[in-house]
Amino acid sequence: MADIRNTVKRFLGEEEIEKIEPFGEGHINRTYFVETAGGKKYIMQMINNSVFKDVEGLMNNICRVTGFIEEKHPGETKTLNFIPADDGKYYVIDEDGHYFRMYVFIDNAHTYQVADSTDLLEKLGDAFGDFQNMLLDFDASKLVEVIPDFHNTVKRYEAFEKALEENLSGRADTAAEEIAFVKARKDICGTYVDRIASGELPLRVTHNDTKMNNVLFYDGSNEAACVIDLDTIMPGVVHYDVGDAIRFGTATAPEDEQDLSKLHFDINLYEAFIKGFLGQCGKTLSKAELDLIPFSGIMLTFECGMRFLTDYLNGDTYFRTAYAEHNLVRTRTQFKLVYEMEQQLPEMKKILEKYI
Ligand code: ADP
Ligand code: GN1
Ligand code: MG
């Protein structure tokens, strides 16, 4: 097995390493915190190569985007700062064939798994709105589509149907209610995909994984420092980013809460997010885009739940799980949120009007 210290060396040369330890809670990559004897701090990540097949393309995307932001805001910590390896590339392949990258650790900052206030959600909206603004004039044709059809909900539905038919895990009968929940919503899957195809909704540069724990907030002031986890930056509609942020940020309990009585969609958190987000980039959005913002939370939460369920049916081959029912537990939280958002859609629309 490859020695992780040798991988660190490829980035940091002969600097003496004090600490290398696992970090963070992501479902896809493996994250390590690295500290040198001189007190310099870094994040090193093992990139999940079965999810991200084209690591070269992925790192090119990230370096282009971070370079673009850094050029606009030099020295402001508005984005991540990647470290080149000894061969000048921004990733390293170790002896076991694993891909790694490294970037500067942002000190005195933290992430949230669950929101503790509307103030936080407004700041979250602000951070993602600002991210959208910074990339408005970025040439999307320079980006490779790292995971094709990532938020193509119609294709995600097809993948669900295939998983159900194959039932590789043999667990379909333990998820009958969740399967029925998905089937009853087949007709919503085309909401965004169809309008992209017709040209009604424009493609922008989107982050596509706007969970609240992908924004760092400074300790003390609690101001947003920067948006992280840049793997899935690709062309997309604004609703992917708004919807996924609503999915995660407006929930009153974590994504894998087992006690569903603790979990609700909190419309006050939704309002705060919309206020922050539209305050930043509302003026750049068309009427067609704005009209479909309230529904985006439903769509992205449904899609995510369907992906968890698909993975459960396939036998947990995509998302990292800690126990056998983990993906089913995640599915249930998502579908409870979808249900509550559906009930409150008219209210969500009214709130949007307030901030246009
Ligand atoms: P994953 O794809 O596994 O979600 P992330 O890139 O989101 O990986 O990183 C995982 C966690 O590591 C984040 O939620 C955050 O807490 C922490 N983290 C990542 N990058 C930095 C950084 N530059 N500075 C400080 N903490 C970071
Ligand atoms: C994954 O890597 P992480 O944990 O930030 C997933 C997202 C899901 C999310 C659900 C590349 O994100 O799409 O919304 O889990 N990322 C990928 O928590 O599939
Ligand atoms: Mg993350």
What does this protein structure show overall?
By secondary structure, this protein is of the alpha+beta class. It has two domains: 4-107, Phosphorylase Kinase, domain 1, CATH 3.30.200.20; 118-355, Alpha-Beta Complex (Aminoglycoside 3'-phosphotransferase, Chain: A, domain 2). It contains twelve helices and ten strands. The strands form three sheets. Strands 1-2-3-5-4 form a five-stranded antiparallel sheet, with helices on one face. Strand 8 and strand 9 (224-227) form a beta hairpin. The protein is globular. The model has no long low-confidence stretch (mean pLDDT 97). The protein binds adenosine-5'-diphosphate, 2-acetamido-2-deoxy-1-O-phosphono-alpha-D-glucopyranose and magnesium ion.
Weakly predicted, low-confidence segments? none
The CATH superfamily title of the largest domain? Aminoglycoside phosphotransferase (APH), C-terminal lobe
Helix content: 40-55%
- Which ions and ligands are bound to the chains? adenosine-5'-diphosphate, 2-acetamido-2-deoxy-1-O-phosphono-alpha-D-glucopyranose, magnesium ion
Cα separation of the termini: 56 Å
Shape verdict: globular
C-alpha Rg, in Å?
A: 20 Å
Overall structural class, as computed from helix and strand content, comes to alpha+beta
The level 1 CATH classification of the largest domain is: Alpha Beta
How many structural domains can be distinguished in the coordinates?
Answer: 2
* Strands, count: 10
Helical element count? Answer: 12
Outline the biggest β-sheet.
5 strands, antiparallel
If you consult CATH, what is the topology of the largest domain? Answer: Aminoglycoside 3'-phosphotransferase, Chain: A, domain 2
Strand content: 5-15%
What's the CATH architecture name of the largest domain? Alpha-Beta Complex
